[in-house]
Write a structure and sequence with these properties.
2 domains; single chain; 7 helices; Arc Repressor Mutant, subunit A; about 200 residues; alpha+beta
């Protein structure tokens, strides 16, 4: 894929700063992914730079540092609470769950993923911003004809605010990663029937 030029990156940043178009509109206007726009804006706000990351060791170190941060964060957020009209099911990462397997059998689902649109790149947004992102995620699942249940990720020790999320049935790992990436998530939770849930790292593009 052809690298995105510095001029285009700068122009995207300028338009975001003008605050006259939404990030999805900007992505469509310049024929780039929404994930790219979100990541570019996040990096510009964090570092003041919109230039492409250097290839090689610098990029690898950045990814490694971010992944270590996520793994540390996951240790304080191990629980998923899955809620529908009949039951509340708690799922813990790295642990088997007979009730979850039964749910998957009843729904004839082999693969699943747990995804949120809240707080992209671990950046806390306002409740209004997060609700809009969550609604967009729900809309995207509807367009793709995925069945899902509502839920939220929560911290066992209460150190992290619960994030509304969706438990998506019959979604393969790569599709789930792509969806998580498009909504600016560093990682998602993914699993299969009769297997333990695990964290899946969404690699930056």
């Amino acid at each position: 894929m052809k690298p995105i030029s510095s001029d285009l990156r700068r122009r995207i940043i300028e338009i975001i700063q003008e605050n006259e178009e939404t990030q999805p509109e900007i992505a469509e206007r310049f024929a780039v992914s929404l994930s790219f726009v979100e990541k570019l804006w996040h990096r510009f706000r964090s570092t003041g730079s919109y230039e492409a990351l250097a290839s090689g060791g610098g990029r690898e170190r950045l990814l490694k540092d971010e992944e270590e941060l996520i793994r540390a964060e996951v240790k304080t957020r191990p629980d998923i609470t899955l809620v529908d009209s009949l039951t509340a099911l708690v799922i813990r990462i790295g642990e088997t769950n007979a009730a979850l397997d039964e749910l998957l059998r009843n729904r004839q689902s082999g693969n699943w993923a747990f995804i949120t649109a809240y707080n992209p790149f671990s950046k806390l947004l306002t409740e209004e911003e997060n609700e809009i992102r969550h609604a967009n995620l729900i809309q995207e699942l509807g367009i793709r004809n995925f069945h899902f249940l509502n839920g939220y990720g929560q911290s066992a020790n209460g150190q992290w605010q619960a994030e509304p999320s969706v438990f998506v049935f019959n979604i393969d790992r790569e599709t789930a990663i792509g969806l998580g990436t498009s909504f600016g998530q560093n990682a998602i939770v993914s699993g299969q029937i009769n297997n333990v849930p695990g964290i899946v790292w969404c690699q930056s593009n």
